[in-house]
Amino acid sequence: MSLSTGPSISLSRVAEQTESVSSSVNTRAKWHQHPAMEWVGVAARLILGLTYLVAGVLKARDLESTKLDTRAFRILPYDLANIWGTFMPFLEIILGLLLIAGLMTRMTAVLGGLLMIAFIIGISSVWARGIVIQCGCFGSNGKLPTTAAYKWDILRDVGLLLCAAWLVIWPRTKLSVDRALWG
Amino acid sequence: MPRPDSRAPAAKISTTGPSKLVFGGALAVALLAAIVIAVLLNRPASHEPYAGPVPTGGTKGANGLNPYSSLTVRTGVPTVDVYEDFQCPFCKQLETQNGEAMLAQAEAGKIRLVWHPVTFLEDNLKNAPSSTIAANGLYCAADAGKAATYHRAAFAGQPKKEGDGFSVADIKKFGKQAGIKGAALTTFDRCVDKGTYDGYVSATADRASRDDVNSTPSVFIDGEELSPTKNSKEYGKLLNEPNSFDSVIVAVTEK
């Protein structure tokens, strides 16, 4: 990971030394190397990591409902949906903890991003087929449940996917175990 | 371009500290272990046919209850499958608007009505075994020949606040309200206490999930699904228009 950023840092430094006129152009091109950007990475790690941790814990505490929700997507066959519904909360918890700690940031961000893409595809699929995931049992206001909330779910997941993408591209962040172990 | 100079610090960074392979390997092992556990926890059931007690009006394969099993229906009449939970407010709404209309058609032998009480709400609401004891009570009442009146009483006695659930005392009260008396009531109460049909309840619920029924109420007319997803117009009618069942069944079966 550091191999890709290493040479370009020195390149711009050399450029600064040799051509003072073009230095401003070079630093603007490398805006993501500004020290403040490593704090953006911390924010991305915490937003994605806490979301995964909280979601994973909530799902793991009620595996039967999680399995039911997974089956309700009607994408995977019955037994496979149950296996995925059991495994996925623990995957989310592991990814959440690693992201919050900042350990193996790039690898966990890749996995977290792929999972987010899977969620976005799943929600788009049920939306397109008009399937309502929440069983028609919460709240008795006389209104039938609709698919209206799906656009917000997708918007949220796209935002989280952007956090993951940021960390895949720039995994070096402040306050991370990666930084403590490998500099 | 002084490339060799610039590459040196980068190479140094990646070789210091503990091996990344160790951490990557540990993550891979943890994820693999989680997958193995998930597979073991969800081994496909051995598909043994249900072997426990079957209530009057039930089926050998444990697939719901026909409240008028003693009636001989004409061949070719539509089968109406209703998947519901006594705790579910929308199911109560369906019962209020069209429960009597469905029963009337079933009693007249114009449809074959099958109730499938399911139980996932007790997981969602975390008040197990509320749905199970209410469903078991329906089967106990069926043995006393009072399934239809129990069904009505249990929905009428649904907790005002969703999630409050049913107690065993509630179920016994529904039996009394259903008109079960004397020795039959003693048998009913014992059946409720023992949970005689708990196995039948979970077998019916399992069957419903395998048949892709994940929300309640769901209604199938000769296999044609009415739910918020499919045939939502007819579904909305059943839930909101009193006694609309007759017109809905005509609309669906003539499709």
TrEMBL record, chain A:
What InterPro entries does the database record attribute to this sequence? Methylamine_util_MauE (IPR009908)
Listed A to Z, the keywords are: Membrane, Transmembrane, Transmembrane helix
Q: Where in the cell is it found?
A: Membrane
Q: Which GO terms describe its biological process?
A: methylamine metabolic process
Q: Which residues form the Methylamine utilisation protein MauE domain?
A: 37-168
Membrane topology category: Multi-pass membrane protein
According to the record, the segments passing through the membrane are: 39-60, 81-104, 110-133, 154-173
Q: GO CC terms on record?
A: membrane
Task: Indicate the principal place this protein occupies in or around the cell.
Answer: membrane
Q: What is this protein called?
A: Methylamine utilisation protein MauE domain-containing protein
Q: What is the lineage of its organism?
A: Bacteria, Bacillati, Actinomycetota, Actinomycetes, Micrococcales
Automatic annotation (TrEMBL), chain B:
Question: What keywords is this UniProt entry annotated with?
Answer: Membrane, Transmembrane, Transmembrane helix
Source species, domain of life = Bacteria
Task: List membrane-spanning regions.
Answer: 21-41
This one is known as Thioredoxin-like fold domain-containing protein
Domain Thioredoxin-like fold per the UniProt entry, residue ranges: 79-240
Quote the Gene3D superfamilies the UniProt record gives. Answer: Glutaredoxin
Organism of origin: Flexivirga endophytica
Pfam families, per this entry?
Thioredoxin_4
